[in-house]
What does this fold into?
Amino acid sequence: MRLQSLFGVDDEGPLAELWFSGHPQFPSMLSSDGDTIDAATAIRRAPEFMISRTIADRWGDELPFLFKVISARKPLSLQVHPSQENAQEGFKKENSSHIDISDPRRSFKDAVAKHEMVVALEPFSASVGFMPIRQQIRALGAIGHPLARSMAALLSDESAGSRQERIYSAFRLAVSSASTMSAGITAAISEALSREGSEGDRSQPPSSAVLSALRHAQDAAQSFPDDPSTLCIAMMNPVELEQGGSVFIPAGTVHVYLRGTGAEIMTNSDNVLRAGMTPKHKDISGFMENLNCIPSPPIDPASGLLKLVFQADIVTYRPPLDEFMVAYGHVDPKSGATGRWWTVSDRLRRTQAKFSQAVGPQHVVASRRRPRVIVALDGVVRCRSNSHSIDLHQGEAVFIPASEPSVTVSGAVEEPGSYILATTAV
It folds into this structure.
């Protein structure tokens, strides 16, 4: 899925993301009755009307979330985001160093922690957080390259410190290695995957996670040949999402988006610390200072921390914070008469019902006293309140202020459509 086609953008070059934002760096433009104003200014002028007094008192006169639609045709950068304390310290430090806010060398664009969640709009591949250390050792040990073997040795040496300390050392070795040490990494990863994935009589066959981690590392290495940071992917949890699948990524969690299109929502922050797989500025020391090295599974619905709430035509995703939540919905005038479930909702209720709960009418997710952003993904989506109605065609979006009464979302034509709604959890 190309963003150019989805949003009607006339740009043949790469387009990785589109923002729906009140962030001061790149605020979206709001148009009403012929007047145009950027979202950040509109909120500052009338915070109670736009976002509610409750939200303004808690997070200030700004939208507490930043919403994007992202699309990766090749892996994006190896990155991590800062905690609140580290964001404040980093922002202050870069300001004191007189690094302009638009300088590409800048890592901290604001003083806000960055937590984020992705909802897949098509099959979506990522690597998120660290696998159990034994799986890391198995994956790296299979790669016949001196750097990979050194990383595996650091992980295996229990006298070298705790698990977190050993993971930190192995990761740092990869991202700080000189290019003179990296020749042959891509070939070595491919050979390891071929060897580990081949059938044979083995007393200790690799786990599916190890094989998937090697596949992800191979994908990254093919896009960034002989980049030593691609070896870090062999340490990380592989994540494969079907349409409607989701994962929450707290600050400090290393991650790479490898392939696919998704709705990404985050706290209102543009702070990114990169360590590899990018032509952009890398801040390896800042990255390592913010890296959480505790192995843990991804935070998805199975973790119990990312809640799903769904009905026949809508799925709501509620991560463990208040700044944001997302609803992924489907409109089809025919489904109401037949009682058919949308394929995404139906699959989720069958595969993840124990992590979910049912809710009432779909307008609940667009209730009053919250700022809301609705983006039409296909078809024609009608958003209607007691006093207003607007039809959104594919790629169009609307901002609904907190002062607007409850909004219902329905189909505007006979053909089905779909949409994403971003809002707060309070």
